[in-house]
Amino acid sequence: MRILVTGGAGYIGSHTILELLSAGYDVVAMDNFSNSKPAVIDRLYAVSGVRFRFYEADLGDSLALDKIFIENKIDGVINFAGAKAVGESVEKPLKYYRNNLSGMINLLETMARFECRQFVFSSSATVYGAGGTPPFREEDPLGALNPYGSTKLMGETILRDVSAADPEFSAAILRYFNPIGAHPSGMLGEDPAGIPNNLLPYIARVAVGRLPYLTVFGDDWPTPDGTGIRDYIHVVDLARGHVAALAYLAAHPGCVTANLGTGRGHSVLEVLHAFERACGRQIPYEVGPRRPGDNAVSYADCTRARELFGWQAQLGLEEMCADSWRFIQQNPDGIQ
Ligand code: UFG
Question: Between β-strands 229-230 and 266-267, what pairing exists: parallel, antiparallel or unpaired?
C-alpha cells in the first residue's frame, strides 16, 4: 500500500509518516512549507532510514497533484495539510475556507480521476462545539464556534457525501483531542512559528527560557483546581491511530468517524506540574483572564476507536512531557 501524506512536514504528519513506514507502508509526502520546514523531511529520512518521495506542492495546485498521482500509484491519502489556528481563522476566514476546504476538494477530485478511494481526514474535538457534556461521543450534537471549526464540520460533511455517492469510497474522520509530546528521538516535535497559541509549546519555551512565564487562562473554571481540562494525547499514539484507521478502511468501505484521545482529562496546572517534573525546574506562571472561546472541560469517549480499529492510546502525561522536554532541549531555537 502506498499512502500520500499531505502536510507531511507538519507536526502530526511527520510523526504519522514514521509510524506508516514502521508498519510497512510506502509513503509519498507533500507539503508547501507554509507552516513547516524542509529540514523536517531530512530528519524523517535520518530517523527512518527511508528516502521516501517528497514533493513541495500546494493542495490548491491541481497540476501538481496530477503529477504526484501520475508518478506514483497512490492507494490512499491522509490529509494533514491545513491551517489550524483558531484565532487566526476568526481574522482570516477565507484563508481557512480556501486552505482547508478548496484544497481538500481538489485532492478528492484528483483522487477520483486516479481511482484512489481511501481517505483519512484530520478533524478535531472542536466539532463538539454545540455545548454538550464530556466525555464526547461521536454521535453527540456538533457545532462550530469559529471558522476553523466550520472547516472541520464542512470537511466531515463533504466526506460523508462523497462516500454516500460512491460505495467503493472509504473515509475515516478522526477527531483529534489535544496532541502533545514529540518523537522519542528528540528529532521531531511541535515547532510553531512565533508565539505559540497552545499550552505545551508555550510551557516548553518557558522551560528553556525563550518566554518568561506562562499565562494560565483563568483559574475560575468549574473544575477541581479551577483551570481548564483537556484530553492530551501523545502525538505518537495519535500517529498510530491513523495507521490503525487505514488498516480498518482497507476492509470496510464507507465513512467512519472516531475520536482519538486518551479518555482522560488533565488540568492546565496538572500539565504544568508534570512538565516541571520532566524538566526538573520550576515553570513560572501567572493567572490571567479566561481566553475567549475556551470551555472548561473536554475529553473523549474513545470506545469506538478501540472497538473498530483495535487502537488505544498507550502513553501517559509523563511520557508526553518527557518527550516534549527532550525535543525542546535538543532544539531550543526550533528545527533549523
Ligand atoms: N492555556 C493556557 N495558557 C496558554 C495556552 C493554553 O492556560 O498559554 C489553556 C487553555 O485555556 C486550555 C488548555 O490550556 O484550557 C489547552 O489549550 P490549547 O490552546 O493547548 O488547546 P485547546 O484545547 O484550546 O485547542 C485545541 C486545538 C484546537 C482545537 C481545540 C478544540 O489547538 O485546534 O483544541 O478541539 F480547535
Answer: antiparallel
Q: Does residue 217's CB lie within 6 angstroms of at least one atom of ligand 1?
A: yes
Residue nearest to atom 32 of ligand 1 (CA): 198
3-state SS assignment for residue 128: strand
Closest protein CA for atom 3 of ligand 1: 216
Residue of 126, 142, 177, 199 to test ligand 1 pocket, by largest number of atoms within 8 Å of CB: 199
Whether cis (ω within 30° of 0) applies to the bond prior to 135 is yes
**Tens digits of residue pLDDT in 169-202:** 999 999 999 999 999 999 999 999 899 999 999 9
Say yes or no to pLDDT of 262 above 90.
yes
Q: How far is CA 31 from CA 192, 235, 327, in A?
A: 16, 19, 22
In the predicted model, what is the mean pLDDT of residues 314-332?
A: 97
Q: Is 96 helix (H, G, I), strand (E, B) or coil?
A: helix
Contact of 268 with 218, CB cutoff 8 Å: no
Residue 180 · residue 126 · CB < 8 Å: no
Ligand 1 midpoint to CA 106 (Å):
30
Question: Hey, which residues are catalytic here?
Answer: 148
Give the distance (Å) from ligand 1 centre to CA of residue 77.
28
Radius of gyration of the chain (CA): 19
CA–chain centroid gap for 320, Å, is 15
* Mean pLDDT on 138-148: 96
**What's the pLDDT at 221?**
98
